[in-house]
Amino acid sequence: MVIDLRYKRAGNFIVIRLDENERIIENLEKVCSKEEVMSGVILSAVGALKEGTLIYRRGYQGDFHEHLEIIGNGNITKAEGKVKIHLHITGGNEKGVKAGHLIEGVVTVFCEVVMQVLRGFKMERTVDKELVSQKVLNPYVLKP
After folding, report:
1. Is the CATH code 3.30.2310.20 the one for domain 6-143?
2. Strand ranges (DSSP E) for the chain?
3. Model confidence over 32-87: pLDDT tens digits?
């Protein structure tokens, strides 16, 4: 669900607030597209998710349907001509902790994200065929 985006940009920094039922990756991609950000760092993502999909390790991903208080960081690159968000999170509740690459997550309560835009620095990702053959679920590697 994409709702009216709430964010502010000051120079190379963007602060985003996501609210109940918003999709974190989808909305980060939307802000980056709107602000023409193709290279950057996700300095922090803090808040809570109520469901989503994580890649836990090579060849294994799973859905979660429970409240997780999260922290995360990652980067913003360009892949196949589009913005690609690479966000890893750790989340927990009274039952335990989960960590991995976030494919998508739905916010509960709120989530706050701080990004730094990298100007004059181009980060791109390409598909690594060797990783595809190894059944890696996110086979995009950073092209230096």
Report:
1. no
2. 6-10, 13-19, 40-57, 60-64, 68-79, 82-93, 96-117, 124-127, 140-143
3. 999 999 999 999 999 999 999 999 998 899 999 999 999 999 999 999 999 999 99
